Amino acid sequence: MKRLSRFVLSLLLCFATIGAGVSHAAENVTVNGSTTVLPVAQASAEAFMKMNPGVNISISGGGSGNGIKALIDKSTDIANASRFIKDSEVKQAIEKGVYPVPHRIAIDCIVPIVHPSNPISGLSIEQMSLIYQGKIANWKEVGGPNMTIVVVSRDTSSGTYEIWEERILHKQKVTPKAQLQASNGAVNQTVSKNKYAIGYIGLGYLNSEVKGLKVNGIEASADTALSGVYPIARPLFMFTNGWPSGLTAKYINFIVSPKGQEIMKDEGFVPIY
After folding, report:
1. Which pTM does this prediction carry?
2. Domain count within the chain
3. Are residues 94 and 113 both part of a single domain?
4. Strands 78-81, 197-202: parallel, antiparallel or unpaired by DSSP?
């Protein structure tokens, strides 16, 4: 994952305390961004609101890029992201007086998926790269049936797509024949209904309607994610404008607390502790 330059990181550290004075509505928090983070954000918000009557946390998806854009535009309190913030986004934020602070809330694996009837059990990174570029177009080329591969991918506003582009495609373009979907759930549903499709989703979205594939012979799991062995593991983030205060701080503190991390685990993601 691309890291911030030392200069930009220094700016974040210098200005985080300035952003700490940002005021929020007394009993309301808005959250926007990654569809990967969406289910854990919703589940933790429900638990938090039960513990704090009168509190309202409104959550919407739309992709990591859209969440960070909303934070920059000051239209959300928290931006959910399944990738780290880009240098260019930090620059835009600072120009608008916004100083993004990252809060790591869980670890996730991006899992390639196929229809349960597909005999393939795993693919290498190179095979998946060629499939998504359209250079491998038939399942028989990777040990499957003699049928055309239906490529299902995420749109470019997705943080999951950006990790996939970096680690699988190596910055090459997705085949123009790919079916683009706006969320993990849409990818899961599309692949579950097509015997010859391939897609990729966050670990928390994996269910019996699709089959997860091993990557380079390694299965996605909490152990392989935490050890760094699984090649497409990544942290999940919430970003705030400066160090959070008030209700926003309480909500994020709840998420990283033992009870909040248990929710992460229940939703199929990997707790950070």
Report:
1. 0.83
2. 2
3. no
4. unpaired
